[in-house]
Amino acid sequence: MSDVSSAEASVFMTHDVGLHARPSVALTKLAKSHGAAIELAQAADGPWIDAKSIVKVMAMKAPKDTTLYFRAEGEGADAAVADLVALVENDFGLDD
């Protein structure tokens, strides 16, 4: 049995312009604050990208009304996924 923790979750993104520059920066900044390896996808079966890479997250170009899938592995995986889901649910902390 592995002692590496892992977590997965999905969240529906309603941000008006989708995952553009400012939400992408907020997402990657939060992801980088966690020690776990975190990946992001627009489909449950991928393709998965590194949620700590601003270039990859912005290149995803996820539009409004997209379900985002997160998975994390390593120390604090549960907290990392929960924090990222909360960020998306709270419209990335942005008012635009």
Verbal overview:
The protein is built from three helices and four strands. It has helices at 21-32, 54-60, 77-89, and strands at 6-13, 37-41, 49-50, 66-73. It has a four-stranded antiparallel β-sheet with strand order 1-4-2-3, with helices on one face. A hairpin with a 7-residue loop joins strand 2 (37-41) and strand 3. Helix 1 packs antiparallel against helix 3. The relative contact order is 0.32.
Tell me the total number of β-strands.
4
For the record, the CATH class is: Alpha Beta
**How would you describe the shape?**
globular
Secondary structure class reads alpha+beta
- The unreliable regions are none
Q: Give the number of domains.
A: 1
Instruction: Report how far apart the termini are.
Output: 46 Å
The portion of residues assigned to helices is: 25-40%
Oligomer: single chain
Mean pLDDT: 94
Which CATH architecture? 2-Layer Sandwich
CATH superfamily: HPr-like
Q: Number of helix segments?
A: 3
What is the gyration radius calculated from CA atoms? Answer: 12 Å
Task: Enter the CATH topology name.
Answer: Histidine-containing Protein, Chain: A
What fraction of the residues are assigned to beta strands by DSSP? 15-25%
Tell me the strand order in the biggest sheet: 1-4-2-3
- Give helix and strand order, one letter per element, not per position: EHEEHEH
Reported for the largest beta sheet, the result is: 4 strands, antiparallel
